[in-house]
Amino acid sequence: MKKELDYMSQRVIQRKLNRRDFLGRASALGMSAAAAGTLLSTAAHAAGPVKGGTIKIAVSGGSATDSLDPALSTNTTMTTITRMWGQPLVELGETGGLDNIIAEEFSASPDAKIWTFKIRQGISFSNGQPLTADDVLATMERHAGEESKSGALGILRGIKDMRVDNGSFVLELESANADLPYLLSDYHLMIQPNGGKDNPTAAIGTGPYMIKEHEAGVRTVFERNPHAWLDTMGHAESVELLAINDDTARMSAIQSGQVHIANRVPPKVASLVARARGVEVRSTPGPGHYVFIMHANTAPFDNKDLRMALKYGINRQEMVDKILFGYGSVGNDTPINASYPFYSEMEQREYDPEKAAHHLKASGHEGSVLLRTSDNSFPGAPDAAALFQQSAGAAGINLEIKREPNDGYWSEVWNKQPFCTSYWSGRATQDAMFSTAYLSTADWNDTRFFNEQFDQLLVAARGELDDTKRQGMYADLNMILNQEGGLICPMFNDFVDATTDDVAGWADTKGFDIMNNYAPAKMWLVG
Amino acid sequence: MHLALKLVAQRLALGLLLLLAVSVLIFAGTQILPGDVAQSILGQSATPEALANLRRDMGLNEPAVSRYFSWLGGALTGDLGTALTSGADISKSIGSRLGNTVFLAGVAAVIAIPLAILLGLLAVRYRERWPDKLISAVTLASISLPEFFIGYVLILIFAVNLGWFPSVATVYDGMGFLDRLSVVILPALTLTMVVLAHMMRMTRAAILNVMQSAYIETAELKGLSGLQVIARHAFPNAIAPIVNVVMLNLAYLVVGVVVVEVVFVYPGMGQYLVDHVSKRDVPVVQACGLIFAAVYIGLNMVADIVSILANPRLRHPK
């Protein structure tokens, strides 16, 4: 029977037998539908990519106000669209490290201040124009310029000089940064002809696809880029992307087979979605975390004992179980988890009402502590706040919860009020994460964390090219945040996506959800 | 005919005046929103120079009155300005969204209005008997359920379980008419269930009111059948209140369907407005407000005019 099934599954992959017939015959041979489906998807994966067909994908986050300029891309829908037509210099590898894309190779000077990216020869943009190092330079100039509104402006600060040197792009930094290549994998930094200075929204790049139709916040249709050069992507003949923000609508689209891939499965319904025929729920660990943030310089949170009391007063495992429904892992009051390149283990802080009560007493704080929350600070935030209230209450801490409106939460509450719920999507490296939110001078220092020792160590780690030493430094930085910081990080959320068994080629990937937003470009249709 | 014409002209003038007043309200409303438009576009990290530049570019330094008139002048000539967020031409992008909304409303109306009136007539014919009670019970039940719930139930049955219609009603340029129709059928059905009861009950009440009249008794004495009496003699005289409620519901179908658009991912005006409100894109919000107001006032005006023309005493004054 095994042989017959194998033969039949090969026939399906070669498109000589359709999937429905295969499942029918497999069940006639006494195999359960689920087992037959698994057999088929394993076989499809093993057989390798199939060309052709149209992949349909439903993605959240899109809005009628979105611009096609990669500099302005702010949500999953736009990031996914950008990755279809564009390519960065380097990209996060599926299992870690970096893959060279537009850059053929890169190297650093020993002081990690001068970086040289050798630009790949013989590749062209989708309009046929050959890509040169000058295009790379122009792209970086546009994003780093004075007038730039680019989301990548922050990571391109501190550049002393950029130039083209004999087919290579050279970046000279004011101070050392061993992570520079990671930063350049940022999703805004798609290489465009002349850097997109002439027409930033043209969506012309070197990616596997070109945009055929686009209505912002509604639908985008892609067709294969005839000049595509990277054969690990672009298997489907065309891709249709639907922007669907309503969770239920997105889930019913995948359950009814209207799309092959959907992102952001709400953890609450993930087990129900997985029960639909032919739908598989994919859970990938990521750097995103749901947090409670205190301003460490504002009363009463300027008192380290009160911060400690709150850190011991939260039940992390309960949050993972009840807020993430198990699709996640516990946090340790730092923004870093195992998905970062130089991660090292640190003793886990547990829920301990006695220690919490001890620190509360030591802090001398009287009365309640006001916690602000809203539904959009992270999914289930008001529920998480209520759980926190309960667990802290057991330690004698009186948490008062104030529910704020979704509208204006990010402008009026987050980074303004001293204690609130929030969300971080994480960054590619420790340095990027710490520099974005925990360095004294960070734009988004949302815990008002000003620690000289931390700042110095962070800058030193940035210039350290010895990986072992760097790992040690990041462990120390983590420990400082864990002890002194204003961050209470109870949980890291997994990315939960769904695919149907009409597509194959899924691989858990570092970065963002749906295979770091590459799923429609890297997956292929079967049967 | 003279009196009726005069009344119609009066209605038209009143409608235009009302629209003008609404435009003042919309403009004033967006001006007194907390915070400055330039500030909300640039966000918290805005530098004073950038703010000053943007204010100048947007003409925010002009007095409000002159800004109002230049905005109104633009709107009258079809120029609604450009969106702050994407820089797109508002008239153009609203055009296709409005088209979508009108299409969905149209399909829903084509199903709902004849159905409501027919059910209303049947309810009168069999009043206080089981068909009347059944019709009332079913339509009242469907209006009592929130529309997102009806939408999800329809999706579960017809899209997920039976697979007859798509759950996602994305329409786009260049889509064939029949494809479009099959895509909007579920949202149109949802809307039908939401507006049906109101129109049906009003038809029933209006006709029942007329049924008390002496001429109905005469018609019955002539030996006409029940339905004939209702359709030929009662219905024409109950048209004014029915048209009123039909127009009210039509206006609702155009301006009040945000929830259904979200549930079915339909690219209409509601979703477009919500996207821009959340980004504080004031010109788009103003434009949408003006269009919604125009639709509302326009349809009510039509209802008024129809009731004037349907009144024989006004058509043939002594």
State the separation between the terminal residues of chain B, measured CA to CA: 10 Å
Any idea of the CATH topology of the largest domain in chain B?
Answer: MetI-like fold
Corresponding CATH architecture of the largest domain in chain A: Roll
Number of helices, counting only DSSP H or I runs of 4 residues or more of chain B: 15
- Major pleated sheet of chain B: none
Mean pLDDT of chain A: 89
Shape of chain A: globular
What would CATH call the class of the largest domain in chain A?
A: Alpha Beta
Shape of chain B: flat
Strand content of chain B: under 5%
Number of strands of chain A: 21
Please, what is the CATH homologous superfamily of the largest domain in chain B?
MetI-like
Q: What share of residues are in beta strands of chain A? A: 15-25%
Strand tally of chain B is 0
Determine the oligomeric state from the structure. heterodimer
Q: Strand order across the biggest sheet of chain A?
A: 8-9-10-1-11-19-12
Order of helical and strand elements of chain B = HHHHHHHHHHHHHHH
Beginning-to-end CA distance, first to last residue of chain A: 21 Å
User: Could you say how many structural domains of chain A there are in total?
Assistant: 4
Q: Give the uncertain stretches of chain B in residue-range form.
A: none
Helix content of chain A: 25-40%
